[in-house]
Amino acid sequence: MQPAAFSSPPRSAALLRAPRFPILTLDERKLTPALGYVFSKKWIDPCESLISILWKFEKANALPGHVVARLMGPDIDPYEGVVPQLGLIDIRRLHESLPVPIKTLHASLLQPTQRRRCSGVFRHCRRCMAHGYHSVLHQLENIYACPAHHRSLETACRRCGYEAPYVASVRLLEAPYRCAYCRASYGGQGWTPNTPQPMKAEYRKAFTRRYFECYFG
Fold first, then answer.
1. Number of neighbouring beta carbons within 10 Å of residue 115
2. Which of 36, 44, 184, 188 has the greatest CB tally within 10 Å of its CB?
3. Is 150 among the domain residues?
4. What's the number of domains the chain is made of?
5. What confidence tens digit (pLDDT) does each residue in 147-191 have?
């Protein structure tokens, strides 16, 4: 009697048709995936601060704060952080990872000539934070209310009273739209890449107009 012939079972058609996704590899020299990050410049609103942009970037790619902090410059200590100010941030290094115009990144930073007029603590509008937005204008000390919502800007957490330093560090980057100390919300759920909400036209105009008044008026 001839021995029975055995063969491996055929692979199902479903498995053969299943898409194959690339595996992102980490470039340790730049701390960026070799195949790039996920981000859209359409997610950015007028006069948005660098902190706000990095929060969106972090949430869209599920990145830890120390990786995001290193994107601002190779010599920046992620835990000590850096003030988001022009001249202290490596804009071109950021531009390599974020498909965002250099002009937009430039506008997201505090201007050196305005340094004494800028608050050293994080200032926010709760209605803006509910939509995942923070403006560089919110940090100017001569602006007391949000240009769009006309609500007084806040600095202290309503739960614990903590005032976060306006420094792009791991502590602030890993608490998007929340208190960096107790993690209480600064207002609403913030922003997610699945449900981006474009800013109303009237708010866009209000921020843009105020920006030009402050820097070019």
1. 13
2. 44
3. yes
4. 1
5. 999 999 999 999 999 999 999 999 999 999 999 999 999 998 889
